[in-house]
Every structure is written in structure tokens, then in C-alpha cells.
């Protein structure tokens, strides 16, 4: 997930935090978009090709960004998740420290 995508698709006045930490033999990368959320009924669809949460948005987005990210992560057997937590959207990637 590109941090610019998190910024572009965030609500006005929200903040984006990117953190990494090592956990045993793995690295955990977290992108947290504070004061932004995705409706619960839509969050399971965000990795589908051409899916857009905000249908009224007329910008340059194709709806392929998270689908491409998902394809890349699955190809490398990385684990990933997206969830709403305390009025924030949190995207987490877990990958081995050695590839």
C-alpha cells in the first residue's frame, strides 16, 4: 500500500501513521489512517478489482490499487489484513525478515 494512497483517500484532517517492528523472525508493517474508516459492509470488498468505497469520487483512481497490493502480497506469501479500529483504518502486512 502506498502511503500516498492512504493520504489521498483519507478524510480531511485525518493523519496517517506508518510503523514497522520486528516480531521474532517477521517484520510487521502497519499503516494507520486516523479519523477515517471504511463501512463494515464494504471493508471485505476493498481488495476486489475496480472496487471503490466512495462511488461518488471522480478522481483518477481506478479501483485497482489494493487489488494489486493484495496480488503482490499473496505472491510472496505475506500475511495482510485491513480493519477498522477506534475510528481508524489499519492496514497490516506481516512478512519474514529474511526472504
Automatic annotation (TrEMBL):
Catalytic activity entry: ATP + protein L-histidine = ADP + protein N-phospho-L-histidine
Pfam families recorded: HATPase_c (PF02518)
Top-level lineage group: Bacteria
EC number: 2.7.13.3
A Gene Ontology BP annotation from the UniProt entry: cellular response to phosphate starvation
Molecular-function GO terms, alphabetical: phosphoprotein phosphatase activity; phosphorelay sensor kinase activity
InterPro entries associated with the record: BphY/WalK/GraS-like, HATPase_C_sf, HATPase_dom, His_kinase_dom, Sig_transdc_His_kin-like_C
Keywords, alphabetical: Kinase, Transferase, Two-component regulatory system
Primary localisation category: membrane
Record GO cellular component, one term: plasma membrane
Localization per Swiss-Prot or TrEMBL: Membrane
Residue span, Histidine kinase domain: 1-99
Family annotation (Gene3D superfamilies): Histidine kinase-like ATPase, C-terminal domain
The protein's name: histidine kinase
Amino acid at each position: 500500500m502506498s502511503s500516498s494512497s492512504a493520504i489521498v483517500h483519507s478524510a480531511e484532517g485525518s493523519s496517517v501513521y506508518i510503523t514497522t517492528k520486528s516480531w521474532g523472525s517477521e517484520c510487521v508493517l502497519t499503516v494507520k489512517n486516523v479519523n477515517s474508516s471504511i463501512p463494515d459492509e464494504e471493508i471485505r470488498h476493498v481488495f476486489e478489482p475496480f472496487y471503490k468505497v466512495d462511488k461518488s469520487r471522480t478522481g483518477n483512481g481506478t479501483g485497482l490499487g489494493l487489488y494489486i497490493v493484495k496480488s503482490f502480497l499473496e505472491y510472496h506469501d505475506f500475511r495482510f489484513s485491513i480493519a477498522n479500529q477506534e475510528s481508524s483504518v489499519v492496514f497490516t502486512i506481516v512478512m519474514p525478515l529474511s526472504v
